[in-house]
Amino acid sequence: MPSDLSVLARPVQYIKGVGPQRAKLLERLGLSTVDDLLHHLPARYYDRREMTPLAELQRDTPAVVQGVVQSIQVSRKGILEVTIEDGDGRVVLVWFGQAYREKEFRIGDSLIATGKVQPRRTHLTVVDFEILGDGESPLHAAGLVPSYSATKGLSQRQVRSLVRQALDEAGTSAPEVIPKDILARRGLSGVQQALHQIHSPGTPAEAEAGRRRFAYEEFFRLQTELALRRRADRREAAGRRIEVSDKLDFRIRTLFPFKLTGAQDRAIEQIRKDLSAGPPMNRLLQGDVGAGKTIIAAYALLAAVGRHAQAVLMAPTEILAEQHARTFRRLLGDSRVRIAFLGGGVKGKKREEILAATAKGEVDLLIGTHAVIENDVTFKDLGLAVIDEQQKFGVLQRAAIGRKGPRPHVLVMTATPIPRTLALTLYGDLDLTVLDEMPPGRREVRTMYVPGAGRRDKLSFIRQKLREGRQAYFVYPLVDESDKVALQSAIKAHGELSTVFKEFRVELLHGRLKQEEKDAVMEEFRAGRVQVLVSTLVIEVGIDVPNASVMVIDHCERYGLSQLHQLRGRIGRGPYESSCILFGKKNERIQTFVETTDGFRIAEADLRLRGPGELLGTRQSGLPELKAARLVEDAKLLDQAREDAFALIAADPGLSGAPALRDLLLRGRAGSLLHVG
Question: Using CA atoms, how far apart are residues 438 and 523, in angstroms rounded to an integer?
Fold first, then answer.
């Protein structure tokens, strides 16, 4: 082993009992060094603290027992039986199909085992066991036993032993990255104590104290990075000042055909201040479906254009981007604002003309999909970028659009309410604006789960709504049938519904259609010439047809809560009573969805039920790995860590007083930010 490696940096290969082959297995778990092992935290614990005397065993119950080995034998069926006594009673420990373990035992061994007592009280089927040497404490079979993630070829027992070995050898070498005054103020354990609490707890309270400390550390490190990033952003060259005069404010507001809500007015005031300040705006605007985020985006974009800067609006789908383009052309039909649309379907000469005009400054407002951030798209003077439905993009796209001009202002929007804890974790370097007020007249949608037996009645209900002049969506999880899952497909459903609603026009929309085909179908539906639209999730965002009052979601159990909420948000946009009808299997997620239309409650439930990774999807590569922290339960801890981290960076931006934390960050993605003096 090279002499210059510290004990924490020592490769796992050189730990006793590991070697090259087992080291490869450990790498699958992300464990390359002793320090990695120390921070491989338990997922849960087995409570094996209560020992049962052998004379008091109860049939068909779990038990932890201890005794001395009296006999060892293997039956003709390959069953290993080891008899132990404790002075007052005896029991036969049973291993099915594990005769090979016979050599592990000797008469006189002190043995602890955990398992289930068989109907015959004299036998116990073993789940785990441990042979104790003189003075040894049990690690696997008794006490509060930690359970770690393992991998094929590497058992839970082996991982547990290696973590304990690392703790014994290097636990006292772990550096403290949290300043001592913060530890004291927040009542947190020091790192060395916390490692013992979480890996070798005597009680559940000790285990929780260790977990809480490491949860805080994860939040603290993340929030320190965010504080450094925000400080760096604000210390760089000032962005373009966009002064929104009262005259310009009045001109913009007169374009809106309705009075803004109080929440919208507050959001606009925040954006006016951001645009006129020195540092570029970096703001996250979130609100429930129908809360009026598009109007806020329109205000910001028109403010930039009104001050002779270029602006760009990026949306995740062609359908949503085209709807935005249609909205702005309607709002600005009598103005001199030059609008261009750039989507994946815009190609050849037309695309070249748009790119050239944008580069010359002959396009004031460019609206499109991710096509607007491709390398050949350049602006003459980009002042503002708006990203709609940010959760559909990744953090890299947000960074890319910010590089399209000399530090443009950036407004990020999402119609999927994000739990506050998740927003602070993922978007903590952004200022947050929440639209917490719905525009007057927005009708609440009646939501109902319908078991299979009620499907026919609901189809009759939908037929009646269609006869009244309304329109309906039917949404399915698959485009076509699959051999792997027994789900109705949109294509098959389209055929069936065309027969069920034969007096109406039924059309199909899905992602495999060419863009011009999608556009044609949506235009027909928007114009009311199509009464039933059978679709996949392509209508999840950006569809605004006020006459559509029925949303049917088949196989509802296949969708996340936020997806269901977005789909429900496609209706209730007009003056008509609206209904969201769910077919499929009922579960806790569906019950929550039926009970509330509050997007923020739904987002919290989705986070609790699915966790942040599945909730956001793989696109959100910026989501940090949280091993100990729980975004739902640890909301207060996150607030404390954020407050402490931002205060620390404000007082000591170079972290000269926290050298261990500084060294840690220098090795990571925030290292370059520490050089901002």
Answer: 27
Q: Measure the CA–CA gap between 280 and 229, rounded to whole angstroms.
A: 13
Q: Residue 150: what are its φ and ψ, rounded to 5°?
A: -125, -170
Q: What kind and span of H or E run contains 158?
A: helix 156-170
Burial 537-576 (b: 16+ CB within 10 A, else e): bbbbbbbbbebbbbbbbbbbebbbbbbbbbbbbbbbbbeb
Which tokens is 215 given? 């949860």
Q: Using CA atoms, how far apart are residues 662 and 652, in angstroms rounded to an integer?
A: 11
More confident residue, 539 or 272: 272
Structure tokens at 150: 């393992």
**Residue 577 half-sphere exposure, CB side, CA atoms within 13 Å?**
7
Give the tens place of pLDDT for each residue, 331-344: 887 788 899 999 88
DSSP secondary-structure letter at 574?
A: S
**Which residue type does 124 have?**
L
* Residue-wise DSSP of 253-271: HTTSSSPPPHHHHHHHHHH
Q: Kindly give the residue spans of alpha helices, DSSP state H, lying in 540-598.
A: 561-568, 588-595
8 A C-beta contact, residue 105 and residue 118: no
Query: What is residue 413's three-state secondary structure?
Result: strand
**Cα 471–Cα 472–Cα 477 angle in degrees, nearest 5:** 155
pTM equals 0.74
Percent helix, strand and coil across the chain, each rounded to 5? 45, 20, 40
Confidence of residue 279 (pLDDT cuts 50, 70, 90): confident
Find the angle CA(430)-CA(433)-CA(435) to the nearest 5 degrees. 150
Q: Which of 455, 419, 454, 451 is nearest to 434 (CA)?
A: 419
Helix (H, G, I), strand (E, B) or coil at 97: coil
Domains in the chain, start-ordered, CATH in brackets?
50-141 (2.40.50.140), 292-414 (3.40.50.300), 446-596 (3.40.50.300)
Q: Which backbone phi and psi does 127 adopt, to 5 degrees?
A: -100, -45
Task: For residue 163, report the phi and psi dihedrals to the nearest 5 degrees.
Answer: -65, -40
Please state, in angstroms and rounded to a whole number, the distance separating the CA atoms of residues 119 and 127. Answer: 16
Residues contacting residue 500 through CB under 8 Å, at least 6 positions apart: 459
Written as six digits, the tokens of 148 are 């770690």
Q: How far apart are CA 356 and CA 349, in angstroms?
A: 10
